Amino acid sequence: MTWMGRYWILCPSGKKPGKRFLYNMGIEGEPGLSKTMYCMSIAKGAEFLNDRYRLDMDMNAIIAGINHTIADFYYYQVQLKEGVEPFLKGMQQAGIKMVAVTSCDRQVFEKALARLQVMNYFDRIYTCTEIGASKEKPDIYSYCS
What we know:
Elements: E1 9-10, H1 17-24, H2 33-37, H3 42-53, H4 59-76, E2 79-80, H5 84-93, E3 99-102, H6 106-115, E4 124-127, H7 128-131, H8 139-144
Parallel strand pairs: 3-4
Antiparallel strand pairs: 1-2
């Protein structure tokens, strides 16, 4: 049996990485940008921003800029939503194996889970970049199940 939960962490609306990356470059992101980019991998998001905003930047520089924006938030600010830790603990005590899927960089995500003291609940972590699929389609979830 596979159960898929989403939104384990609390991300305040002012901390959207694509929009924040553009803001740091003096560019105002369009309304709905964060929703558009939500399920994209970092690489796909960088490509999207480069094409949409004609950034004329090296893709690696865009990816590094987005990762820096995400890292700062995940390293120091992101919080679990209310009730997540007891839920994870209950699932683990029931013997239910859990994996996490993220569209951000593995190192960034793992550091956040470690800081929040929930890393031990997950048997494995998958990243969109490593799998080669985004969270926009069910492929990555099928791969992880």
